[in-house]
Design brief:
Blueprint (H helix, E strand, L loop, with lengths): L1 E6 L4 H17 L6 E6 L11 E2 H9 L3 H17 L11 E2 L3 H12 L3 H14 L7 H10 L4 H10 L3 H13 L7 E4 L3 E4 L4 H15 L2
Parallel strand pairs: 1-2
Antiparallel strand pairs: 1-5, 3-4, 5-6
Helix pairs in contact: 1-9, 4-5, 5-6, 6-7
């Protein structure tokens, strides 16, 4: 089973969705052999390099009041905690440009370390409050998941895989993906949003049963 996980590293519901999907696959066990691929989506493709205060940004984009922002943060924190993922919302103070993180993720996929890097990026941003546009942060995370440090520096410095990322972003936009996370199974079946574990588990079991007939 091929699973494309379309997401952005600065999307909290994508972190929740990934952990839910991973847990569902753990529950299903060997009944489903899944190949997980991470596809790029930028929530804020025009975000400036220095980023923007997260409360200010969400207020401008979604019209959230401070009270609504706090309620949303608590809902995200609670969902993450139930899945074993720690959101430290007080340290996530800024929204950042994530294009370079997606370039590094594309390269990591070629090296067989994409899943590990994706997890590391989510933790770095949502748990540790680190800047996913900072090349020093990206290089360190790449090294921590077993990627070559020097090659990671070269990828970031040269703009490598920029066209690959843009091509994939355009492809999924053309397929009607305008919100993330979006989980696409075998290029045909869409599961939208950071669904509960049970929803992912039921859907994957049904799709596996259908494909085996």
């Amino acid at each position: 089973m091929k699973i494309d996980f379309v997401s952005d590293v600065s999307c909290p519901w994508c972190a929740i969705g990934l952990r839910s999907l991973e847990t569902a696959l753990e529950r299903i066990g060997p009944d489903v052999q899944a190949e997980l691929h991470f596809q790029p989506f930028e929530l804020n493709p025009t975000m400036r390099r220095e980023g923007q205060d997260v409360a200010e940004y969400l207020g401008q984009k979604y019209g959230l009041s401070p009270e609504q922002f706090a309620q949303s943060n608590e809902a995200i924190r609670a969902r993450g905690a139930a899945l074993g993922f720690t959101f430290q919302m007080e340290v996530r103070r800024r929204i950042h440009n994530t294009f370079d993180a997606h370039r590094l993720l594309h390269w990591a996929g070629l090296e067989g370390r994409q899943h590990e890097l994706k997890r590391a990026l989510f933790k770095a941003y949502f748990t540790d409050g680190q800047d996913p546009s900072d090349h020093a942060v990206l290089v360190r995370l790449a090294q921590e998941v077993g990627l070559d440090e020097q090659r990671a520096r070269e990828v970031l410095a040269t703009g490598a895989h920029a066209e690959d990322v843009r091509r994939q972003e355009h492809f999924y936009q053309q397929q009607g993906i305008h919100a993330v996370p979006a989980v696409i199974v075998d290029d045909r079946h869409l599961i939208q949003g950071g669904q509960p574990v049970e929803v992912f588990e039921q859907a994957l079991r049904q799709l596996a049963a259908t494909s085996s007939r």
